[in-house]
Design a protein that fits this description.
Trna Endonuclease, Chain: A, domain 1, 11 strands, 3-stranded mixed β-sheet, about 40% helix, alpha+beta, 4-stranded mixed β-sheet
Length: about 280
Amino acid sequence: MTNDFSPSSTAGKRALSYGEMLANENLLEHEREALVAETLMAYMSTLLVRRGDVVSAQLLLQVDRWQLEWDQGGHEKDLVLEVDPANLSHFGEDLLQKLRGLCKEISERLSLDVSWVEVKETLPVVGPGWRDVVQREISGERPSNQARRLQPSPHRWLEDNLAFTNEGEQRVYRLLKHRQERVLPPEETISIFPLPNGRIAGRTWEPDFLITYKGRAGILEIDGPHHNARRALDVTREHLMHDSGIAYVDRVPVEALDSRQEIDQVIDRFLRRLADPR
């Protein structure tokens, strides 16, 4: 089941909101259920960000699919989130309770009649060649960072057997790899770790890129469009990173992702400062 219920619009017309789309009396039952699930995900993610809980909102972006399913008693429909097994541990009871409270709040205000959230593993996409796929997995031929799956979902970006969550991350990776293989000497180059799961004091965390260079480790992040609104959170997290042994942290502004020259400038500055022990 896909979850691409994005409101469309023609030229010169305003895109419909989810509330307006739900008011359409011509929706079939399965269309309405898919739209309700999409609406709940959209509202929960947006409210989490606006209430300052960026970490939980980022975790919702790791959800592969979402749909309504009958509960075990067959009495009501629950919102079920499918998550890759590698990310399942992040969806603990504290986060689930938070999501259930949000779901109930949104459902009551929009009369959606959904008040419970469950999480389960995403089933991999497999076919008759599954034996070969499993053998390659056993041999280590799989996306080796956070998105370990038998066959990545179509919306993932893959390169060098590594998974990325969007085109911007992949673009930055390619420019980092260009320096690794074409610019820096082989005996003094960099290592690139995209989206590694890890833990610093008090929290688990998934930076965009962990880079090692000249015996030092640095973090390169890609700023989202709401970066200014959460600057205080970023500063606090930077302090935790420095206290945990990360030598330098820098960011690629999201506005720079369309310009190779601007990304190159950020990477050059990042590597220059990472190499400086002062």
